[in-house]
Sequence to fold (196 residues):
Amino acid sequence: MQQHLETTSFFRTIGDAFVSFRSVAFHDDVGTLHRWMNEAHVYPFWHLNVPLESYEQHLQRMLSDSHQQLWIGSVDSNEISYFESYWVKGDVVENVYEAHPYDQGVHLLIGPPDALGRGHIYPLLFTMLKQQFRVVETEKIIAEPDIRNEKMIHVFEKCGFQPVKEVELPDKKALLMFCRRDTFERRWNEWNIMNV
Fold:
């Protein structure tokens, strides 16, 4: 299966925000990502508040995994987020529902505490989803936030995801959510109208 985004960077202007993504580069980003994984709003859900050496090994494994891509997301040139876009096929989550071969998934976080609560997550997530849906065979994108992470569940719902069911994954009890193409396109258009 081809890489689903087939690019190392992309960008979009949404309202007043210039949103961009670039591929994670190990040497450039491992220190920043390790710091973000140790932030109080991140580690309860990501479980990666580990020593730097352990995180380096984890990130190298993630970067060598061909079923996913890792991204640094920026708003107005400020690097504030980490995203993982992935094929459901080949991921542990494909075992908890009847997956279509071109289903994709997404994980994300806002890293710096001072970037929280500013609404940046919406243009970032909308931009990532828009890019993922460029794969014409993809009809839905999934998310599986920790069932305790009410803020993230709300963000996904606002961007077009709908709850499906609670699922048990190796590292968490999660809420499986689907974002279907038609629902996303409607939310995308509404968001752009509201933010012109």
Summary: The chain has one domain: 9-194.
